[in-house]
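Progress report, Aim 2. The chain analyzed during this reporting quarter is listed below.
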Amino acid sequence: MASKIKVDQIEGSTGSSITIPTGQTLTVTDGLSASTITSGTIATARLGSGTASSSTFLRGDGTFAAAGGGFQSIQTFTSSGTYTKPSGINKIKVTVTGSGGGGGDSGTPTHGSGGGGAGGGTAIKLIDVSSLSSTVAVTIGAGGSGGNGGAGGNGNTSSFGSYCSASGGQGGLKGGAIGGTKVGGVGTGGDLNLTGTDSTCGNDQTGSADGGMTGSGSFWAGGGYGGHQTAGSSGQHGSGGGGGGAVSGSSRQGGSGGAGLVYIEEYK
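Predicted structure tokens for the chain:
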């Protein structure tokens, strides 16, 4: 039968310290002050649970966890492709923008200016990718085509897998379509969903009297400037999801909308 010895205090021969011989153990059930340990080492397993390494730290709750490294890197997509998470990345902030609509044309010299293309929408989402084991498909919407004798083409949707997406802005109106409005794209699935700016309408002044309307903006950029037949200029192309600029007169073309984009910030 095992025996127990209970004492209130153990002191060394000098009354100040006690030495535990190599190979022996000391079990303390009521706590041990770190200030009394003057030499030797304590096994990692005695400090806390989890895996200790050069990239982990001991938390206040007694567990080893990966050290937070903050912002690390950026990936930008201006054409469709595949996102691959770098090693050690735990969270990403994704900004998805749809493409802009194309700028409208007046159709004939007597129908004034076409309307600028509307801007693409934007979705912004913070995603925990610590357990992501596969890649994510990235789709970039092509810009709407510029009008050539009529209205501009609609923009297209950009997306980041099934996490979030943003539709493109509508194409600008044909010249002479007074009072009409073309709407900007809309973000979907984000923590923040933004709408692109609606396009301005055309007017009914003669093509030689007025230039084309400027394309509308997205989250990233404004649209392209309008063109003028008499000045020999076509509508400028949009960028960053902005709408294309419209044109007045019949012999020039509206600018195409800016292609969408996906911007990814990576964090540890």
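The radius of gyration is 33 Å. The chain has one helix and 14 strands. These observations will guide the mutagenesis work planned for the next reporting period.
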